[in-house]
Each structure stands twice: as structure tokens, then as C-alpha cells.
From TrEMBL:
Organism lineage: Eukaryota, Fungi, Dikarya, Ascomycota, Pezizomycotina
Taxonomic source organism: Pyronema omphalodes (strain CBS 100304)
Organism superkingdom: Eukaryota
Domain BTB: 29-97
Protein name: Similar to Protein roadkill acc. no. Q9VFP2
Xref: PROSITE patterns: BTB
InterPro entries membership: BTB/POZ_dom (IPR000210), SKP1/BTB/POZ_sf (IPR011333)
């Protein structure tokens, strides 16, 4: 078997940069992806390597909507699709907004939630991992309201197999339990998520038994669970 010399890191970075530059440039493009108001010029070979969805879609007997070399991704934000496509070319995706897309970007937490949902639909496990890691980083700047929306979207688009991103939610909620308990609508917001709340209770149990949680918080939390939530 032939062996090849190890390439310097800067050569690999240059290659990835050049590969990223052909994304949506139109150069050598043989496929168009549409999402909302956005249209992206891409390459079957690159997308087919990343996900079987595009491999299947672009075959001769592939999806009907791809017969004219156009694939439309519905029910996902244009920015999430753009981030997915960027990942296909360079192995990562940016947090920054794409100002060329005539649609508001997803909120800070939802950027990663929606990339994760799209990656799940397209069966791209590595991208799901990246999205979960980015969400964990985003939670370092805490905002209770957006967290609630993020939480609900994740639970609507994942199941128990998606332990990675669900655990990110759990750890963020435990770390910011005071903020969550301070919400007047806490019980209403989390009603129906008993499995998550049970896991959260076990996660913060050491805090409940220590001086890091005030007595008032301990009472509220226990009353909350006593009510059957």
C-alpha cells in the first residue's frame, strides 16, 4: 500500500479554506439547495460524502424534487441550512449571521438547536456533536427566556437517544437553577416534562443539601415536585 508524507498543518488549513470558498460561489456547482428565501450553489460529491440524504437525493432514481438538480429543504430555517452546508465544506459552522440571507437569523441558543435538528434529519452524527458543543458554550452567557424556547424545541426534535444535547440542557438548567426558579411561570413552562425534571432534581440534589441553595429555594423546589410535576 502506498504511503504519503504527512502534510503540514498550514497546508491542510489552506485546503479547507479553498474548499470553503467554492461553496455557493457557483464554480463547478452541479446542485442547488433551496431553503426559505435562500438559494445555495453546491456540489453533489461533497454533500454526498457528508450525508446519505444527498447521496440518495442526487442518484438517478433519487428524490423526485432533485430531478432538476434542485433540492428544497422545508421546515428548517435558511440559516440552519446554510450552517449545515458550511459544515459540509469546512467541517465546522460559524455563529455569525449570514447577512446575504433575507431572513432573520435564529436566536443565539436556537442557532445550535436548529442545526442539531437538521443534522438529525439528515443523519449527520458529527454535526450533532458540534451543535451540542456550541450550545454548551452559548449557555455560558445565560438568558432564561431563550433557554425555555431552546429547551422546548430540543425536546420536540429529539428523543432519549439524543443524550448529548439533552445533557447539555440538563447541566445548564442545574447551573442556573436559581434563575429558573425565579420565574413565576416555572411550573407552567415545565409541566409535562417530568422525566427532565426528575433528572434535574437528581442533578441539583447536592446543592439542595448544601448551603449553596437558600432555604427559600429549597422549599419552592420541593413544593414544586410535591405538586406532581
Amino acid at each position: 500500500m502506498a504511503t504519503y508524507p504527512q502534510q503540514p498543518a498550514h497546508c491542510k488549513l489552506k485546503f479547507l479554506s479553498e474548499l470553503g470558498e467554492i461553496f455557493n460561489s457557483g464554480a463547478y456547482s452541479d446542485l442547488t439547495v433551496k431553503a426559505g428565501p435562500a438559494t445555495f450553489k453546491v456540489h453533489k460529491a461533497i454533500l454526498g460524502v457528508r450525508t446519505k440524504f444527498f447521496e440518495m437525493a442526487t442518484r438517478e432514481d433519487g428524490f423526485l424534487e432533485s430531478k432538476d438538480n434542485i433540492v428544497t429543504i422545508k421546515e428548517h430555517s435558511a440559516h440552519a441550512v446554510w450552517r449545515f452546508l458550511t459544515y459540509c465544506y469546512v467541517g465546522d459552522y460559524p455563529n455569525a449571521e449570514n447577512k446575504e440571507i433575507a431572513e432573520d437569523d435564529d436566536e443565539t441558543y436556537l442557532k445550535h438547536t436548529r442545526v442539531h435538528a437538521l443534522a438529525d434529519m439528515l443523519d449527520v452524527p458529527n454535526l450533532k456533536i458540534i451543535a451540542a458543543e456550541k450550545l454548551e458554550t452559548a449557555f455560558q452567557v445565560w438568558d432564561t427566556g431563550p433557554f425555555i424556547q431552546c429547551f422546548k424545541e430540543i425536546y420536540a426534535t429529539t428523543n432519549t437517544r439524543d443524550a448529548g444535547i439533552r445533557n447539555v440542557l440538563l447541566c445548564a438548567a442545574a447551573k442556573n437553577i436559581h434563575s429558573l426558579l425565579g420565574m413565576q411561570t416555572f411550573q407552567n413552562e415545565f409541566e409535562g416534562y417530568g422525566e427532565f425534571l426528575a433528572a434535574l432534581l437528581m442533578k441539583i440534589k447536592p446543592q439542595i443539601n448544601s448551603n449553596t441553595v437558600t432555604s427559600r429555594t429549597r422549599v419552592n423546589y420541593r413544593e414544586f415536585f410535591a405538586n406532581g410535576y
